[in-house]
Amino acid sequence: xxxxxxxxxxxxxxxxxxxxxxxxxxxxxxxxxxxxxxxxxxxxxxxxxxxxxxxxxxxxxxxxxxxxxxxxxxxxxxxxxxxxxxxxxxxxxxxxxxxxxxxxxxxxxxxxxxxxxxxxxxxxxxxxxxxxxxxxxxxxxxxxxxxxxxxxxxxxxxxxxxxxxxxxxxxxxxxxxxxxxxxxxxxxxxxxxxxxxxxxxxxxxxxxxxxxxxxxxxxxxxxxxxxxxxxxxxxxxxxxxxxxxxxxxxxxxxxxxxxxxxxxxxxxxxxxxxxxxxxxxxxxxxxxxxxxxxxxxxxxxxxxxxxxxxxxxxxxxxxxxxxxxxxxxxxxxxxxxxxxxxxxxxxxxxxxxxxxxxxxxxxxxxxxxxxxxxxxxxxxxxxxxxxxxxxxxxxxxxxxxxxxxxxxxxxxxxxxxxxxxxxxxxxxxxxxxxxxxxxxxxxxxxxxxxxxxxxxxxxxxxxxxxxxxxxx
Length: 472
Known about the structure:
Layout: E1 3-10, H1 14-25, E2 30-34, H2 47-52, H3 54-73, H4 88-112, E3 116-119, E4 122-128, E5 131-136, E6 139-148, E7 152-154, E8 167-168, H5 170-173, E9 182-186, H6 190-201, E10 205-209, H7 221-234, E11 237-239, E12 243-250, E13 253-259, E14 265-270, E15 272-275, E16 279-281, H8 288-291, E17 314-316, H9 327-341, E18 355-357, E19 362-367, H10 370-375, E20 380-386, H11 391-396, E21 402-408, E22 414-421, H12 424-436, H13 441-446, H14 456-465
Parallel strand pairs: 1-2, 1-6, 2-3, 6-17, 8-15, 9-10, 9-15, 10-11
Antiparallel strand pairs: 4-5, 5-6, 7-16, 12-13, 13-14, 18-19, 19-22, 20-21, 21-22
Helix pairs in contact: 1-9, 3-4, 3-6
C-alpha cells in the first residue's frame, strides 16, 4: 500500500528542502525524496549547493584566504609568521565538516517541521486518482501535488568527459588532495573564478581559458574591468576569445590544444583541468516521458511564470527550470510554490535577485547593468565611489574596487547596483531591499550609515548619482 501525502518534493537541495519545509508549515502532509550520499553512504541533504557547490567552495575560499593573509599580509600588521606550512588534508577535512553540519541541519529542520524524508532516487511512476504515484528508492508514495527540484549537473566538454582525477567538474575541484603546480580552467564564470582563486592562493600557477571575447559579460562592464585588473595583479592568467580543441588526459596531466584570440595554435600543459562551462538541468531518472512531463530543448522542465508544468498538480523549481541557476532563486521559487498550493499568492521578483562571485575582491550586483540600460535606450544617471576612499576599507587593508549606482534620470529610481570589493556579498543586500521598495538613489543618500563601515561606500555611491560625494 502506497503512503499518501499532500505534497511530495523530489530533490532535497535549496529549492526542494525549502519548499518541503514551507509546505509543512502551511499544514500539508509532506514528503521529500533525495538521493545524495555522503562518504559513508548515508543521506546528505542539501543538493549540489551544500555538497559540492556553494558551501564547500566558500569553506575552501576562507581557508585559502587565511593562508594567503598569513603568508603575504600579516607582516604589515606586525604579525610575524615563521615556518608557514599547508596541510591540504586538514583543509579538506574542515570543508567536509562544514558540509556535514549543513547536511545535519537540514535533517533537523525536517524533523522539526514533520517532513517525511526518503533516501533514494525519486521518479514518476504514473498518474493515479487524486495525484501521482512516485517511486522513492524502494518505497511507493502517492502525492496530490508534486514539486520537482532535481537541480542541475556540470556540463562536460565534448570529447573530454569528467574523470574527477585529471579532468574535474566542480565536484572533483573540491577534492584535489595536493596543490597542483599548474592548474587549467576552461570557463571564467563563477565556478572557474572561485576555484581558480582557491588554488592560486595556495600556490598553483593558474591559467583560465575563456571562449567569450569579453570578461564576465553578464557583469557591468566597468565593474568587470576593475575585477580583471585585480585578478591580473594577483597572478591569475586569463585568456579571452580562445577556441578549445583537443583535450588529452594522461598520467602526467592534461594537454589542451587551443587557438588564442588571434587564431594562433597554442598548447597548455597542466596537472589538473577544471571544466566550468555551465550546467545542464538534471532530469535523469525522473521518468518525465512516462507521465508526459514537458521538457524544452535544453532538457529543462517547461513551466509558466508560477512554476506550473504542463501536468496538473505538478510544479518545478530551481536549476531544473528557466532562469538563473542560483540557490537563493531556487529557495524563493520553492516558498512561492508551496504558498500557491495553499491558495496564497507566492511571488518571486526576478529583477531583484542578487548575483555574487565570492572571489577576492568579491563581485555582487542586482538589477540592470549600464550596457543593458544603453541597449534599451534608457535615460539614466550613474554614480560610483571607490573603496580606496573608505576608512573601514583602509583599516581592513583591502581598498580594491568600488560601488556603482544606476538610477532613472527622471524619477531617480534605482535601476541597478554593482559592487566589486570587500564584502560585496553582504553589501548588496541593502540594494536589494531598496529596489524591492522602489527606492531612489536619494533615499539611500539620505540614510545614516554607521561610521566607519564599508556600507558608507554604498551611501557615497548614491550621493555620486547627484554628483555630491562627501569623501571623494
